[in-house]
Amino acid sequence: MRVSTPTPSSTHSTIHRTIHSTLRRIQSPIGRIELRGDGAAITALTIERSGSLPADDLSENSDALLDLAAAQLAEYFRGERTTFEVPVSPRGSAFQQAVWRELVALPYGTVTSYGELGRATGRAAAGRAVGGAVGANPIPIIIPCHRVLASDLRITGYSGGAGVPTKQWLLALEGIAHR
Fold first, then answer.
1. Which residues are catalytic?
2. Which domain holds residue 99?
3. What is the distance between the terminal CA atoms of the chain, rounded to a whole angstrom?
4. Which of 37, 115, 131, 134 could cross-link to 22 by cystine, CB 3.0-4.6 Å?
């Protein structure tokens, strides 16, 4: 299993669970990372911005799943892992879920465009909505939103960590050319 996302029928039950019951922080080449989980899946991954993380005031409460995700992220950052094998449960609209499923299917070292994502989700003219869904991804890196570029391979933004420099670093790690 590479990464699992909730099916539309399971999304409703995800909303009624405790969203973040576990917490683990790790060091990475792009800054500290905060992993959150609900005991069954990863529910959030946040890259440090301006020296802080959303739950810096909380004590860590890790579990085997967060420990596995942390180990897989360390392997990814060392260039030893190209897929993630942890369950994820991102919260979002049906359209966001469709975009995130497309991102999960995108192989390491490859890119897609906002237009291609729109076509793949049946909304070819929804570039802005696709961009919004990509930017709202609550589990970056594992759900690889950094692999989305403009059709001319330009970076148009990145909402994680330090923004565009973080995206440039991730693209370089995967050997992805960009403008």
1. 145
2. 94-173
3. 33
4. 37
Q: Which amino acid is at 156?
A: T
Q: Which two tokens stand for residue 174?
A: 């995967």
pLDDT of residue 11: 38
**Same-domain status, 77 and 126:** no
Where residue 107 sits, what CATH number does that domain have?
1.10.10.10
| Domain endpoint, select from 40, 56, 87 | 87
Say if residue 75 is in the same domain as residue 7: yes
Q: What token pair was written down for 75? A: 């392997």
The tens digit of pLDDT for each residue in 73-109 reads: 999 999 999 999 999 999 999 999 999 999 999 999 9
Are both 153 and 99 inside the same structural domain?
A: yes
**Does residue 8 contact residue 95 with C-beta atoms inside 8 Å?**
no
Treating both helix axes as pointing N-terminal to C-terminal, what angle do 127-135 and 94-104 enclose, rounded to 10 degrees? 70
Say how far apart CA 69 and CA 51 lie, in whole Å.
22
Maximum alpha-carbon separation in the chain: 44
What is the pTM for the complete model shown? Answer: 0.88
Kindly tell me if the per-residue pLDDT of 50 is higher than 60.
yes
What's the angle, vertex CA 143, arms to CA 132 and CA 93, rounded to 5?
A: 45
Q: Is residue 179 part of a domain?
A: no
Count of domains in the chain? 2
d(CA 117, CA 82): 21
